[in-house]
């Protein structure tokens, strides 16, 4: 037979059964596709040896008027700032009330009487889960502003490294979140303990919150059955996401100042920080699907990995999930805790430029895209350090790999024998390949390899279906395209 090209489409497909990923990539880690070519993600290096005291949940980077650069990150009980050289400053407000490192709810294993419910059946939804504490951080000019749901106060840090952040005078308390709009209003979300109230200060004056004929302060209450979780700036609007729906706030000027309309239903946000904004719009993770808003109405984003993600997520700790962009490659990452983990240990990625998805395992708790700094900056889950990402190819103890779903050649009942592969690799020797064969979808799987890539690569295996696994064996910027197999015989078994 002639050479058979293994022209596998870019991205991961992980919905349904194993065999439904026939002819697609099914599993991966630290691998991306650019222009339909597989390559490794970049590695990471420590940005600062001065780590936080706990998992960082909420980050912000910015440049001051004096061209100084800062990174801010908040934990459940602290707020920190790092300068551009890595020096850490504790800027925790003196009046700050600590929250929770983990979500708290007694509904998991051990909750209730033994034998009270059938094995595998979810318990009644009668207990409110208190989410892990996360920070909403933004900039008011060159100053940092922030808020946590558990503390409820609005704080501002005015860049003096000797002084902590302080409560914003006259601002409402009991807030769930905050955001600074494009028009330079500070929105207090869930203001005053009302989970549906949006209250804003006077324009350019975050200490004036009482409406008057001489200012533009005001408030509105959302018509929603949910509670406000997050606000983000999108082009020309402020998008407010609740636990059940989405609302767009538009500046209309005095006397009403802002008008708010609902732009999506049944599209609630899964976690406070699980939304990212790019030029194309806002993208977020809901409890069971992904959504986008591009300026008109919310739409569900079809996902090739949704089945894998939403059936393998620890819903008791889903409040720790967060989104971060990598604009260099048009990617949005969502990090989340897998079903057997209590901390973020896995991720999925949507490449909104190439409309592809991929997955992997990496413990990160917060992050920001490049901007004030040359590289994306993400926070580690275990040692609480912050790293520069997409730097070199050092992955610690991890290694990039990708594995296909079952590949069937011919009609599906043909047994094929492979004796040779002609690899399509930019720099041969940076990766190796293993083949795993079966005669039936649920039959015994046999491994062949790993084979070091050469032109050609000699090998011998037989099966009705096989999967291919590519492993990185060197720390380099390798590329893999369309490999070809030499099949010398076929028959039935």
Account of the 3D structure:
- The chain has 493 residues and is mainly β.
- The chain is built from one helix and 39 strands.
- The protein is elongated, with a radius of gyration of 25 Å.
Task: Summarize the topology.
Elements: E1 3-6, E2 25-29, E3 31-34, E4 37-40, E5 44-48, E6 59-63, E7 69-74, E8 79-83, E9 88-90, E10 135-140, E11 143-148, E12 155-157, E13 166-167, E14 177-180, E15 186-189, E16 197-200, E17 218-221, E18 228-234, E19 237-242, E20 245-253, E21 257-265, E22 275-278, E23 281-285, E24 290-293, E25 298-301, H1 306-310, E26 322-326, E27 331-336, E28 346-351, E29 356-361, E30 364-368, E31 377-380, E32 386-389, E33 401-404, E34 414-422, E35 431-438, E36 446-452, E37 457-463, E38 465-472, E39 483-492
Antiparallel strand pairs: 1-39, 2-33, 3-4, 5-32, 6-7, 7-8, 8-9, 10-11, 11-12, 12-13, 14-15, 15-16, 16-17, 18-19, 19-20, 20-21, 22-23, 23-24, 24-25, 26-27, 27-28, 28-29, 30-31, 31-32, 33-38, 34-37, 34-39, 35-36, 35-38
Oligomer: single chain
Summed up, the helix count is 1
Strands of the largest sheet, in order across it?
2-33-38-35-36
Topology, number of strands? 39
Label the structural class: mainly beta
Mean pLDDT metric: 92
- In one word, what is the shape? elongated
CATH topology of the largest domain: Methylamine Dehydrogenase, Chain H
Low-confidence stretches: 108-117
Cα-based radius of gyration, to the nearest Å: 25 Å
Main sheet properties? 5 strands, antiparallel
Briefly, what CATH class of the largest domain?
A: Mainly Beta
């Amino acid at each position: 037979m002639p050479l058979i090209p293994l022209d596998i489409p870019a991205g991961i497909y992980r919905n349904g059964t194993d065999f439904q990923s026939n002819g697609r990539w099914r599993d991966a880690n630290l691998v991306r596709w650019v222009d339909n070519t597989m390559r490794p993600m970049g590695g990471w290096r420590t940005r600062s040896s001065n780590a936080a005291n706990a998992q960082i949940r909420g980050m912000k980077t910015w440049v001051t008027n004096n061209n100084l650069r800062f990174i801010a990150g908040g934990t459940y009980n602290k707020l920190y700032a790092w300068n551009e050289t890595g020096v850490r400053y504790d800027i925790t407000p003196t009046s700050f009330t600590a929250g929770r490192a983990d979500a708290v709810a007694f509904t998991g294993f051990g909750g209730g009487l033994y034998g009270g419910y059938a094995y595998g059946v979810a318990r009644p939804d009668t207990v409110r889960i208190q989410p892990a504490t996360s920070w909403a951080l933004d900039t008011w000019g060159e100053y940092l502003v922030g808020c946590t749901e558990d503390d409820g106060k609005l704080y501002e840090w005015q860049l003096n490294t000797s002084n902590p952040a302080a409560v914003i005078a006259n601002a409402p308390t009991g807030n769930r979140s905050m955001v600074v709009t494009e028009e330079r209003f500070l929105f207090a979300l869930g203001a005053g303990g009302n989970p549906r109230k949006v209250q804003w200060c006077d324009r350019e004056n975050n200490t004036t919150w009482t409406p008057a004929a001489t200012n533009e302060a005001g408030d509105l209450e959302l018509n929603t059955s949910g509670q406000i979780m997050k606000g983000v700036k999108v082009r020309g609007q402020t998008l407010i996401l609740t636990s059940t729906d989405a609302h767009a706030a538009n500046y209309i000027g005095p006397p009403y100042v802002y008008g708010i309309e609902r732009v999506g239903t049944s599209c609630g946000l899964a976690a406070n920080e699980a939304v990212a904004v790019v030029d194309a719009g806002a993208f977020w993770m809901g409890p069971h699907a992904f959504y986008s808003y591009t300026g008109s109405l919310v739409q569900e984003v079809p996902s090739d990995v949704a089945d894998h993600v939403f059936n393998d997520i620890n819903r008791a700790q889903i409040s720790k999930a967060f989104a971060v962009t990598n604009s260099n490659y048009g990617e949005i990452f969502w990090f989340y805790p897998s079903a057997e983990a209590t901390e973020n240990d896995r991720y999925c990625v949507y490449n909104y430029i190439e409309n592809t998805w991929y997955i992997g395992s990496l413990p990160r708790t917060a992050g920001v895209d490049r901007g004030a700094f040359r590289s994306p900056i993400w926070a580690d889950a275990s040692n609480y350090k912050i790293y520069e990402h997409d730097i070199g190819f050092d992955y610690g103890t991890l290694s990039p790999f990708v594995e296909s779903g079952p590949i069937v050649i011919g009609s599906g009942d043909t047994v094929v024998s492979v004796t040779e592969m002609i690899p399509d690799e930019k720099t041969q020797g940076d990766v190796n390949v293993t083949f795993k064969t079966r005669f039936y979808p649920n039959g015994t799987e046999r491994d062949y390899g790993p084979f070091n890539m050469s032109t050609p690569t000699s090998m011998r295996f037989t099966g009705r279906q096989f999967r291919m696994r590519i492993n990185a064996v060197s720390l380099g910027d390798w590329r893999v395209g369309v490999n070809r197999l030499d099949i010398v015989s076929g028959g039935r078994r």
